[in-house]
Design goal:
Layout: H1 2-9, H2 13-45, H3 48-66, H4 72-78, H5 85-117, H6 122-136, H7 142-148, H8 153-177, H9 181-201, H10 213-237, H11 239-247, H12 250-284, H13 291-326, H14 334-349, H15 356-360, H16 364-415, H17 421-441, H18 443-446
């Protein structure tokens, strides 16, 4: 315990890793707890179709953000100029321009998207939701600087504060209006509160408009592959909503979205931890530099994978029970969805620590190749699955896509000397056994979804 306390309070890399991991885990866990609490309240105020409609709104806004991502935060984290004011201010200027363009696009695309999904309300809700993209462009680069130096305590606290305020406003509006508009406006208010808090309380110099040509060249040089990667990453994270929104009725889409939310939070935590922490770690302790660095990262990888697989296994086995305890009978179908999604996400957990090695080395090209491959496979298997076997087929398609994409992830990991074959062999075996057992035990909860 004394040694642990020394590690945590020190100034070395291990101390910063432990402090950052603790803050990110606590912050993400608290954020998910807040979302769950608000979700339980909102499901009793609103109706399943409301969550289906909000899933489509969120899918569009996230899609616009991902299809235009320049990788500014990862660029700041890995660049040698990451603390240069000219570099930071130029990055902030580019971010503002992007936010304005995205806000304009929500107005332009609102009508066509509403027609495609045959949901007229989308035409009025999307421009309002687009305000959050405009606000996102104004966020200070001090957030990225804190992540660069693994000093995320205050960032996490401010983010949690904004979530509390935003969710409270959302619930109050839902109670008053009984409308999906409460969910849309609540997300905008949360983004605005976070912007105000970050500008007011994060340490460091305030950003100013700046255009440094060398910084622009570096940002676009790094960001061109990030741009393409995140465009494909949209299909990885939101492709299910985009496709299922066309094939499922809004009430079933809303139930699916609730099940996905419950089942995916462990892997989302793992991705958040990996993205915010592994780039600085890989940058400061490159695995190819020494066998000792590789061994330390291998131990860290086993710990991360075991934690993620354990949490996902608990959800896979207990999904139907959990949904039955938390939600009313309108949402019981989400129990089987939790089991299937958690089983699929266990496959993803095995490789979650690999891809950031490419970004840490400035190799955004290989990062793009992996994301493009995974997204293409996922959409392809998703379409085949949903048209052939309904919702269950779509979810199984996710799992097949992740398995088929793993060899590309191995190629990336080997290129940067981070692949650990013993780790993968061990944990794929564990995942296979746990997934099969959870599906067999909860098959009665899954059966009603077959053909849905």
């Amino acid at each position: 315990m004394a040694r642990l306390a020394e590690y945590i309070h020190g100034s070395g890399l291990m101390a910063r890793i432990l402090r950052s991991a603790s803050w990110i885990t606590v912050g993400y866990g608290a954020g998910q707890a807040l979302r769950l609490a608000s979700n339980l309240i909102l499901t009793r105020i609103l109706f399943p179709e409301a969550f289906g409609l909000m899933a489509l709104v969120t899918m569009v806004t996230i899609g616009l953000a991902l299809f235009s991502d320049l990788g500014i935060f990862p660029a700041i984290s890995q660049s040698k100029r990451g603390d240069d004011p000219d570099f930071l201010n130029t990055a902030w200027t580019l971010q503002i321009i992007r936010g304005v363009v995205l806000f304009a696009l929500t107005w332009v695309l609102a009508g066509p998207i509403a027609d495609f999904y045959d949901e007229p309300l989308l035409a009025s809700y999307l421009p309002v939701a687009g305000l959050s993209l405009l606000i996102l462009g104004l966020q200070p680069t001090r957030v990225a600087t804190a992540q660069r130096h693994l000093a995320v305590g205050r960032v996490t606290a401010l983010d949690l504060t904004s979530q509390v305020i935003g969710l409270a406003v959302m619930i109050a509006l839902a109670w008053a209006t009984r409308s999906v508009f409460a969910l849309v406006l609540g997300t905008v208010i949360q983004a605005l509160v976070l912007l105000i808090l970050n500008h007011a309380f994060l340490p460091g110099e305030h950003n100013r408009l700046r255009w440094d040509r060398s910084a622009v060249t570096e940002l676009f040089g790094f960001g061109k592959w990030i741009f393409l990667s995140t465009a494909f990453f949209f299909f990885t994270t939101q492709g299910d909503k985009a496709v299922l929104g066309k094939y499922l009725h809004l009430d079933l889409l809303g139930i699916y979205n609730i099940g996905y939310f419950l089942a995916s939070f462990p892997i989302a935590l793992g991705i958040t931890l990996a993205h915010r922490m592994l780039i600085p770690i890989y940058r400061e302790r490159p695995p190819r530099e020494s066998p000792e660095n590789f061994r330390k990262l291998a131990r860290m990888r086993h710990v991360a994978t075991s934690g993620l697989v354990t949490m996902l296994a608990l959800l896979a086995f207990g999904g139907p029970w959990l949904v039955g305890q938390l939600y009313d009978d309108r949402y019981l179908l989400a129990g089987g969805i939790v089991t299937l999604i958690a089983a699929v996400k266990m496959i993803q957990a095995v490789g979650v620590t690999y891809d950031n090695a490419a970004l840490a080395a400035g190799d955004s090209r290989q990062y793009f190749v992996f994301n493009a491959t995974r997204a293409t496979l996922q959409v392809g298997f998703l379409l085949i699955g949903v048209t052939t076997f309904g919702l269950v087929g779509a979810i199984v398609g996710f799992g097949l896509a992740l398995i088929c994409a793993h060899p590309v992830l191995i190629w990336l990991a080997r290129s940067h000397h981070v692949w650990d074959p013993r780790h993968d062999l061990l944990w794929f075996g564990v995942v296979l056994v746990l997934s099969a057992a959870a599906i067999w035990m909860n098959f009665d909860a899954i059966r009603p979804m077959i053909g849905a």
